[in-house]
């Protein structure tokens, strides 16, 4: 999917919501455990109930790998279901991968070809040659970790390197990489005030923003500091939506939570004349 | 496996060789492609031919994920084969994972419980709460990326933070984490001279050293600067061993290459009176 198709979809749906499909078998409604594939059954119900309210889905691969082969199978069924039924929706493999060149190419093939996601999250620690293999794929997007939403972000990301924080160094350096136009960035909502400085470095890039909701981030603040003239934001909510209820009404509850966020987003978009 | 069991095995085999099982279907002998599971058939042959010469095997997960479900299945068969037939061998899932707390726990379960590896490689960018969930598993080891063997290591890892390079900051900070005794570190062989400073910070930890062979690192230098009084090194070779031949003699050729390295290691160990 191209970035302009994503922007078009945001305007059409009046939404820049991304729903995180982080399926934990201990948290999903008990009745689903009787299904042949409870993980996929859960995802399908969530997707069917919410696809008109969001523009992206983001399965975090950890939740699938933890269940071994059946988890990987459920991930494959989920991305195939999305691509077949909702090709207009942007898909994110939240995998936080990154390795030396030829190995990163294998990861890129795994997520862009074998599983056919539109994008994958990548960790920057190993530098240029660990990220460029992902950037080489046309109309695919590499979402680089810049400033994450967790407390550990302050261990290294915000430390000052040559007068500049590590995450800013990551942003600036990444702009020099081949095919850097295929980059997006992870910026945690719990650090909304940082977005002012971030937008000075990457004014035009899309930001994937986790941490709204369960982790305490504020949607209004993120939009105030982070929105650009093509919106430029994908706001992720996982637990706040998919575990809104753990009873038979879980999908309807997820839709309701999604709609609350979508309406808030529509108001923000209207106020900004998008 | 405990660290002292690993040390015992190093002394018994006179080897601190780790063999990287990075299976690329384009590189393995053609006749194996007729097997039902070519990836596992290749790994099994390599393991059968080399297990007496090495103390660790390290499948890089990228090479398995790139083949989707059948790749993950081959990874599962490989770790099960190792655990059943060679429980004395240290196993490393080279996965370079890392995420926020509850998500890292899912990754730890994937590699320590579902796949039952002894260790997993983890990226440090997201800090303390992204790594501690791995450290919580008893007799399991978390191998933190410190200074990697690729060119991109110079993009961020060697940049100076408050008068100290990022990788040194990672080493020092990681020592303060809960259960830090379960940490080992990745340090690339292509930067052997850095080992002097690294050993000042982490004198007792095991180092996983990639980059000997194909990537140009030198075994003698690594040992000179990196060895400690319990050896403290696992030297990885992947392509140099497993692709020594791509004909029907591939396993014998892999054993020969392994033996060359093992003999060099035995000489070094003898000279150091281990």
Automatic annotation (TrEMBL), chains A, B:
The keyword Lyase appears for this protein: yes
Annotated catalysed reactions: orotidine 5'-phosphate + H(+) = UMP + CO2
Presence of the UniProt keyword Nuclease in the record: no
Pfam family, any one: OMPdecase
Orotidine 5'-phosphate decarboxylase domain sequence ranges: 16-254
Active site: 96 (proton donor)
Enzyme Commission number(s) of this protein: 4.1.1.23
One Gene Ontology term from the biological process aspect of the record: 'de novo' pyrimidine nucleobase biosynthetic process
Pathway field: Pyrimidine metabolism; UMP biosynthesis via de novo pathway; UMP from orotate: step 2/2
Listed GO MF terms: orotidine-5'-phosphate decarboxylase activity
UniProtKB keywords: Decarboxylase, Lyase, Pyrimidine biosynthesis
InterPro entries (alphabetical): Aldolase_TIM, OMPdecase_type-2, OMPdeCOase_dom, RibuloseP-bd_barrel
NCBIfam families the record matches: pyrF_sub2 (TIGR02127)
Entry similarity comment: Belongs to the OMP decarboxylase family. Type 2 subfamily.
HAMAP family attached to this UniProt entry: OMPdecase_type2 (MF_01215)
Name of the protein this chain belongs to: Orotidine 5'-phosphate decarboxylase
Species of origin: Pseudotamlana carrageenivorans
Lineage, highest ranks first: Bacteria, Pseudomonadati, Bacteroidota, Flavobacteriia, Flavobacteriales
